[in-house]
Design a protein that fits this description.
By secondary structure, the protein is mostly beta strands. 7% of the residues lie in helices and 38% in strands. It has two helices and nine strands, in the order E-E-E-E-H-E-E-E-H-E-E. The strands form three sheets. It has a five-stranded antiparallel sheet with strand order 6-5-4-3-7, with no helix packed on it. The chain has a two-stranded antiparallel sheet with strand order 1-2. The radius of gyration is 15 Å and the shape is globular.
């Protein structure tokens, strides 16, 4: 099968990926973590795992996701704080009915919350 590659600043290396990957969620969608329950807004998608080996190895072995699936960058929130999360597709569920997310970086990336999702700021889309 043909592969392509891209440079991942998080991983600090070139990452090999299939030329086409099917992401279940899109930019601006609200999702919930399947195991830990936190919510977030998708702001970027990697077609396959593209983070550091240290990050991957820090996940308990019995919970480690497969590398060959989309991974999502989220503006995330839980009851205590807001943060950025990196989550595999297998660990996410759609969560559009729960309403907007409260994250301090939302206004830098997205316009208003409308119809269950956020719209990317016009200057950021391509």
């Amino acid at each position: 099968m043909d592969r392509t590659s891209f440079f991942s600043p998080q991983a600090g290396r070139e990452v090999s990926a299939p030329p086409v990957a099917e992401a279940r969620f899109g930019i601006g969608e609200i999702v919930r973590h399947r195991l830990f329950g936190f919510r977030g807004v998708v702001f970027d998608i990697d077609p396959v795992f593209a983070n550091s080996e240290e990050w991957y190895e820090s996940i308990p072995k019995d919970l480690r996701p497969r590398r060959d699936q989309p991974f999502y960058h989220l503006l995330a929130e839980n009851d205590e704080s807001s943060y950025v999360a990196y989550v595999s597709q297998q660990n996410l569920l759609a969560d559009p009915e729960a309403g907007p997310v409260d994250h301090p970086s939302l206004e830098q990336i997205f316009e208003e919350f409308q119809d269950g999702r956020y719209r990317l700021r016009r200057g950021l889309s391509h």
